[in-house]
Amino acid sequence: MKTGYAPVNGLEMYYEIHGQGGTPLLLLHGGLFNIDLQFGELLPKLAETRQVIATDFQAHGRTNDIDRLLTCPDLASDVIGLLEHLQVPQVDVFGFSVGSGVAQHLVIDHPQLIRKAILSSASFQKDGDRPENSAVGEMKVEMIAGTPMESDYLAKSPHPDREHLQILLDKLGTFNQGVPEWTDEQIKSISVPTLLTVGDNDGMTLEHAVKVYRLLGGDVNADFVGLPVNQLAVIPGSTHFFGLARTELFRELVTGFLDAPDPATP
User: Can you give the residue ranges of the AB hydrolase-1 domain (predicted)?
Assistant: First the structure.
C-alpha cells in the first residue's frame, strides 16, 4: 500500500493506493465515514484484481478541514485535483452516499474521467430522499459518543477534538445547501456505464432508484430488446449506515460489473 497527501484546493487530501493492474478503481466514502470505516472490509478484496485508489474527503479521516461548506461540486473538484496530482487520466469510480453524490458530478460534468461508475445510496433529486433524513441536520457529538465514527475521528483527524467533530456534523447537516439538483434530462444524458445500488431500507426510496434507472434506459424486457448498459441492484436486508455490510455480495456486484464487457460492444 502507498499512502500520501495531495495539496488540493487548500486541503492536504489523504489517499491510499492498493493493488495493481487495470483501470484504477476510485473509492469515495460517505459522510462521517472514511476509507477504513466505509471500505475497510471490501477494499482488500477489490485490490486483489485491480489497482484501487481511496481518499478521505474534506474534514474526514486524515484529511484536514478548511473554511468551506461541504458540497458535492466542491468535493468533486477536490477529487479531480487528486487525480491530476496522481497523474491518473481515467478511473472507474465507486461512490457511497456522499461519495455517490460526488461521483454523480463526475459522470455528468466530467465523463471523460470515468470509464464505469457504481453509484450507491444517494438520490439524484430531493424527492428521492426519505423524510427521516432531516435528522442529520440535528446531529450532536453526544449522539455518536462511543461509536466507531467518533473514535475514528479522534484517532485520525488533524483536528482531533469534539469541537471540530461538531463542526463536521454541522456541515453535514447543511450538506449541498443551495446546490441545484439534477434534472431528468441531465440524468438521461449520463454516458458512462453505471451500476446503481440501493438498500431495500435505505435513505433513498426504491421508487426514486427505479425512476433513475428508467431514465438511464433500464426496466425493459431485455430478452427481446437486449440488456441495457446500465444496471440496478437492490441490496436485501440493508440500511443506509450499514449499506456495505454485505461484503461478499458487493465484491461480486462491483467486480462483475467492472469486468464485464459493454453489452453494446460486439
Answer: 24-122
